[in-house]
Task: structure prediction
Amino acid sequence: MNITELRYLVAIKKWGSVSAAAKQLYAAQPNISKALKNLEGEYGLRIFERSSTGMIPTEQGRRFIEQAARVLEEVDRLTEDAHHARERCAELRVMIPHATYASYAAVDFLKEAAGADQLRIHIREGGSMEALDFVLRRGYHLALLRYAAEDDDHYIHYCARRGLKMEPVMEFEYRLLTNRDGPLAKHEVKDLSELNRYMEIMHDDFQLPGEDGGDGVRWHVNDSRRIHVYERCSQFSILQQLLSAYMWASPMPQRALDQFHLVLKKCPAQRQVMRDVLVYPDHGALRSEEQAFIDLLHREAALTVK
Result:
């Protein structure tokens, strides 16, 4: 016995015949006939009498159908309660890079989800290889990858082999982020070696892709003077206080630059093209929380690069 067989049984009684039940349920008539036969065989009783006017329940059949209807009512109530519980609980686990617009999208999502009775939100920052691990093995719903455009084929094949869907969000060249009052704010860097006398703030998430990872970089890294910082607000606070510090950053919302008294400059000497690509398991329709975050992410990206 299963729930579908019970639904077929109640439908036969309601509509008077197997063919009428099949029509109302948009089901194949042989499947309904088989379900009735299975139930009668499993419980050793005759549920219906066949007549020229239709299917008439026997006395045992009538009691059996009444019990089946009560079971279906409980199942439907359980389903409805679970649906309402999902509506009251906002649940999302997402990995993002050190990208200010992505953080703003996360805040926008939290504002919309704040009215839920329960919140189960995990927002984690990290590099692309770590993000893939969290989606593939640690139950995260979404990950925003950041990688060099020349590595596109690697990530496409990697994600395809593991059943991950890819959705482009932004393409950009790294820009120089520094204090508005600092020496780099008005200086055009024509050769990257000019930066060696300044202090570089680094995310430390520059691992190159590969089955075993990598530790090289293709864009400029200041080998002589660098500071590794893993939290965005700390990075911005350092840039606020150290006029000679800088970091490479993606496009940022103007309100973030204004808040931390920073300037984001295009640098002709830096031509590394980067891509931000959203990945998630290709399991069909997205959950409402996942789609909401994706929509907000695209909105913040569009506002940032306009």
Q: What stands out?
A: Residues 90-172+273-306 form a domain with the D-Maltodextrin-Binding Protein; domain 2 fold (CATH 3.40.190.10).
